[in-house]
Write a structure and sequence with these properties.
5-stranded mixed β-sheet; 15 strands; 5 helices; 3-stranded antiparallel β-sheet; 197 residues; single chain
């Protein structure tokens, strides 16, 4: 202990005097090390993500994608959109604000060029984005089970309407949609090809 003016004391040591119930004292020393939270560590990496999930208590949208199945999407409102549907038609998913839609893709709704470029039909699929108001700020586009590119023609269609794009395979696009729709509800749309295409 160091004595400073006016009988004030300032402790610079790491030992502390603990008094027990009967008035005795015991000096306890602590090691010279940075504090650690070893008692809080976990072997499961998922627990670390849960601790850092800043949107955990946010209100999820009604059409939140609970899981991506092998042939479709299971939404939080207990809707399961599968492709092919009962009639055998290839079906995509369109999510706008709190609404969920099945998009019939079997009548030329899209085509795959050179095996990796996806082009949506303006007349069959993309025209819905001209009819909705207010328009979403961002459209998340899922292009099937593998990584592909959205065609320049489809990109221009969205760009002319002032809609920004986030493009990926359908599984990752569903995750991106969930994150963005939770973070900024009402301004995000999703157009997802089935995950088995």
């Amino acid at each position: 202990m160091i004595r400073i003016q006016k009988c004030a004391f300032r402790r610079f040591s790491t030992s502390a005097l603990n008094r027990n119930l009967f008035g005795g004292g015991k000096v306890v020393t602590t090691p010279h090390a940075a504090p650690s939270n070893k008692s809080e560590t976990t072997s499961n990496p998922a627990d670390l993500f849960k601790k850092n999930d800043i949107l955990m208590y946010s209100q999820k949208p009604i059409n939140y994608i609970e899981s991506v199945k092998q042939n479709g999407y299971h939404l939080a409102n207990n809707i399961l959109i599968t492709s092919p549907n009962k009639e055998g038609h290839e079906v995509g998913t369109l999510l706008l604000e709190n609404e969920s839609y099945e998009v019939n893709l079997s009548n030329g709704g899209y085509k795959v060029i050179n095996g990796f470029i996806v082009e949506f039909s303006e007349e069959e699929v993309l025209q819905i984005f001209k009819k909705i108001h207010p328009k979403p700020e961002i459209a998340v586009v899922g292009l099937g089970k593998k990584s592909r590119m959205l065609s320049e023609k489809s990109r221009k269609y969205f760009s002319q309407m002032g809609i920004q794009l986030e493009v990926g395979d359908s599984k990752h696009a569903a995750q991106i949609y969930d994150l963005l729709a939770t973070e900024r509800p009402g301004v995000i749309a999703a157009l997802l090809l089935p995950p088995n295409v």
